[in-house]
């Protein structure tokens, strides 16, 4: 392999920073001992740290992770080669003792404690101590209902206590430190946390990835505030201490004390210098100094994003005085700098306005060791209300799954990203603007789409073809579907700490609103795998806007829609008004295939943990049988549908096998496949089986059992099984997949004949969902007639439920809206996913002319 080209996502970053990314490799190309070198656009090697992320069955490397610090940015291409790496002259250093871990990047040194409450100590940048006593904090709100007096609120502060600290990675360029613990005070312990800190050599920045897990009782334990605080060593007179906030377009600055006075006005330009962040000397003007010192001293500043369309900057002099509103705006960029004569610190919270209510704050600014705070959930907002929306279930009317009330947030999580950078001298505004832009936008190196496609490392998907008129027309429809959802996120304000990243399930064209209040029709929660659709859409195009939507969906669905502790650990909650509200707790919501794309492309360690955490989720069926409404469980043997339950287990096992080479998980997949091979109708048997997690065996209990064959193929099973088929090199398994895809499209008479009367057409709903499996069958069998049937499924509205072309309507109701009256995310997700797969498998078999005409007359997008 020579000169593997890499490029930046969207645009070139604005300044030097550490970058981590993943690269796939074709089977047999990269050996474990092969060195890798990164070459910049100038032709010079750039120091690189590399490590394996996954392996092929033959032992060659499937995915590698990389880290580098780019001192110079260029629009030209970078290349990755199998070659000797350039060594780092002054590598990052990590030293561990019984009490602490010391990190030295060159310009930055800090200590991470291994016990107690103070996590980050002695933050030094260029020999200037800027910060210390970094702590995680939460504020608990307890509500006591009083019928006559109203509700009484009591707030208590808790601080993060360190339970364990681990050096997850250390090398010459990048180090990752993982801290786990829980928030405590004298009387209570709650909210477990995971905090990762990322360091890069020659960089004064720290990236932090923070996860908290809710373990309270939602009736009594309301989270009023959640964040990180640390003390800052800001020095200088009050008028030479400046707080700067990155707002919509530029910087808003406020000093601790204004040099403007009614007598001296702008004081010969000193005021302009002060507001721009430059130090000013008022001692040369004794009278001016007296007047300046007579001005109010402002000690507390904050920027609060209280909704997706509003923020405010506020300040006050002392705790017992009123807050003043300085400015209001729409969408702040989530960066604050606070500094004095000795430099200062900038902090940034990613997705600041998207994941509101959030805030950045500094208190006691003009005093010794001011406290800086990053609020993931600002105390200025209402406390988190994680209770269910109803005291009843609404199964019959609102499709809520089971009559059981299993709505609980106990065990759900949320992850946020924070950046921190120390400055030994005050930065100019342009530097902060660039910093904020980079912190809010993914700084990521990517391979070309053609290269991703050629490695076969992420399943079966197609590259866009804009030359063929029919395929170009299909690309137009795929683009229309994505652009609609991109617009809906903004149009419907699908934002907020607990909602950002998810989309809704079913549209109500009468109210011109999604069914946000109808049980099983509200939030999507990975139903019919929109995650995989978006990641395939990104892989084939490399577009930043698709990446950002897929990233947000991954962060949300992998944390909020699944459980991380408690009785449902590893399982997820199906679609509902409340993300955790559905009584169905299932493995398909949390399966690895939904999230592994993000891990492999970014190397994100939090996502890696989530992939590992579900490897044994099949054992959860011993406590909560997915088919408990239909069958009793005995002696630890429960029930599972071949899809979406067992297919989700396969997804998790495949992920564990390829990442760790633990063949136990490969054998689990093979055990189930062997069980299916020995049933009367192979993969078509069931679809419900008895299942024993201890042995991984599926036990045949009959064919045509309740469970629905459309459930087998609508939740990512085809993508999991096609990928597994290539890895296992099992020809019979490939034959079984093709058999299933073909069978779905048979007539009732043919189905009865082949299954000896056991399986009938009434058991097969939503044939469009099977288009991917049927395309696989057509490809394996080289059957053009079957390929034509697949195109009918995708292009005829009576099968697809997608009227083509996909077009929005503008309507005036409670406001002017663009809507698609018939839209459901289930059908859009499956249609787009199956089109992408079909173009790969049967793209050379063009549909009949009349089918092509249905979309070809529409204006097609061009490359």
From TrEMBL:
Residues 3-81 form the PcRGLX/YetA-like N-terminal RIFT barrel domain. Residues 93-435 form the PcRGLX/YetA-like central beta-sandwich domain. Residues 442-846 form the PcRGLX/YetA-like C-terminal alpha/alpha toroid domain. It holds the Pfam family PcRGLX_2nd. This is Tat pathway signal sequence domain protein. The lineage of its organism: Bacteria, Bacillati, Bacillota, Bacilli, Bacillales.
């Amino acid at each position: 392999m020579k000169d593997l080209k890499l490029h930046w996502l969207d645009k070139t970053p604005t300044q030097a920073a550490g970058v981590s990314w993943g690269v796939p490799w074709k089977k047999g190309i990269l050996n474990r001992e092969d060195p890798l070198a990164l070459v910049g656009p100038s032709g010079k090697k750039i120091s690189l740290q590399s490590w394996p992320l996954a392996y092929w069955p033959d032992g060659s490397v499937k995915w590698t992770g990389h880290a580098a610090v780019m001192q110079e940015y260029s629009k030209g291409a970078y290349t990755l080669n199998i070659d000797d790496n350039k060594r780092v002259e002054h590598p990052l250093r990590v030293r561990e003792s019984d009490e602490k871990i010391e990190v030295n990047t060159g310009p930055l040194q800090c200590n991470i404690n291994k016990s107690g409450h103070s996590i980050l100590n002695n933050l030094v940048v260029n020999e200037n101590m800027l910060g210390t006593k970094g702590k995680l904090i939460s504020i608990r709100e307890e509500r006591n209902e009083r019928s006559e007096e109203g509700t009484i609120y009591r707030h208590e502060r808790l601080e993060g206590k360190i339970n364990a600290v681990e050096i997850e990675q250390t090398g010459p360029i990048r180090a990752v430190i993982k801290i786990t613990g829980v928030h405590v005070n004298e009387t209570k312990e709650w909210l477990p946390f995971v905090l990762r800190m990322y360091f890069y050599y020659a960089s004064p920045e720290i990236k932090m990835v923070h996860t908290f897990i809710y373990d309270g009782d939602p009736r009594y334990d309301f989270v009023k505030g959640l964040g990180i605080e640390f003390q800052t060593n800001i020095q200088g007179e009050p008028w030479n201490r400046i707080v700067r906030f990155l707002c919509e377009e530029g910087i808003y600055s406020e000093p601790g004390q204004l040099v403007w006075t009614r007598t001296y006005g702008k004081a010969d330009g000193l005021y302009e210098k002060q507001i721009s962040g430059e130090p000013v000397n008022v001692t040369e003007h004794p009278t001016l100094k007296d007047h300046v010192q007579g001005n109010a001293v402002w000690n507390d500043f904050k920027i609060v994003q209280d909704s997706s369309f509003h923020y405010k900057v506020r300040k006050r002099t002392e705790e017992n005085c009123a807050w003043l509103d300085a400015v209001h705006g729409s969408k702040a960029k989530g960066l604050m700098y606070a500094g004095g004569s000795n430099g200062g610190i900038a902090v940034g919270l990613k997705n600041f306005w998207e994941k509101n209510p959030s805030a950045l704050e500094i208190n006691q600014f003009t005093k010794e060791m001011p406290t800086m705070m990053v609020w993931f959930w600002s105390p200025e907002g209402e406390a988190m209300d994680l209770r269910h929306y109803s005291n009843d279930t609404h199964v019959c009317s609102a499709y809520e799954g089971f009559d059981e009330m299993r709505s609980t947030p106990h065990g759900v999580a949320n992850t946020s990203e924070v950046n921190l950078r120390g400055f030994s001298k005050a930065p100019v505004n342009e530097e902060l603007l660039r910093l904020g832009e980079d912190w809010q936008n993914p700084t990521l190196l990517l391979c070309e789409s053609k290269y991703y496609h050629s490695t076969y490392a992420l399943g079966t998907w197609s590259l866009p073809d804009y030359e063929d008129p029919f395929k170009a027309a299909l690309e137009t429809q795929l683009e229309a579907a994505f652009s609609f959802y991109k617009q809906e996120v903004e149009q419907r304000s699908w934002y907020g700490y607990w909602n950002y990243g998810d989309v809704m399930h079913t549209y109500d064209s009468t109210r011109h609103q999604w069914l946000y209040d109808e049980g099983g029709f509200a939030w999507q929660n990975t139903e019919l795998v929109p995650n995989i659709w978006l990641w395939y859409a990104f892989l084939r195009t490399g577009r930043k806007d698709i990446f950002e939507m897929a990233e947000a969906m991954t962060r949300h669905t992998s944390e909020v829609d699944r459980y991380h502790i408690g009785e449902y650990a590893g399982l997820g909650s199906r679609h509902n008004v409340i993300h955790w509200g559905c009584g169905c707790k299932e493995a398909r919501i949390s399966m690895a295939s939904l999230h592994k794309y993000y891990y492999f492309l970014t190397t994100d360690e939090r996502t890696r943990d989530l992939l590992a955490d579900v490897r044994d989720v099949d054992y959860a069926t011993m406590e909560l049988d997915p088919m408990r409404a239909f069958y009793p469980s005995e002696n630890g043997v429960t029930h599972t549908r071949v899809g979406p339950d067992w297919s989700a287990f396969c997804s998790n096992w495949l992920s564990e096998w390829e990442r760790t080479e633990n063949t136990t998980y490969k054998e689990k997949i093979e055990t189930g496949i062997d069980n299916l091979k020995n049933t009367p109708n192979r993969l078509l048997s069931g679809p419900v089986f008895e299942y024993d997690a201890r042995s991984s065996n599926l036990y045949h209990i009959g064919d045509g059992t309740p469970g629905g064959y459309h459930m087998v193929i609508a939740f990512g099973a085809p993508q999991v099984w096609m990928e597994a088929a290539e890895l296992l090199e099992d020809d019979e398994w490939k034959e079984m997949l093709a058999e299933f895809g073909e069978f779905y499209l048979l007539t009732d008479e043919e189905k009865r004949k082949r299954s000896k009367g056991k399986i009938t057409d009434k058991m097969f709903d939503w044939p469009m969902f099977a288009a991917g499996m049927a395309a696989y069958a057509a490809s394996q069998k080289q059957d053009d007639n079957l390929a034509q049937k697949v195109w009918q499924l995708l292009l005829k509205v009576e099968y697809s439920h997608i009227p083509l072309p996909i077009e929005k309507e503008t309507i005036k109701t409670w406001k002017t809206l663009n809507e698609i009256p018939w839209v459901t995310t289930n059908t859009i997700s499956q249609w787009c996913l199956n089109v992408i797969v079909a173009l790969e498998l049967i793209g050379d078999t063009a549909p009949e002319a009349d089918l092509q005409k249905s979309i070809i007359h529409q204006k097609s997008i061009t490359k």
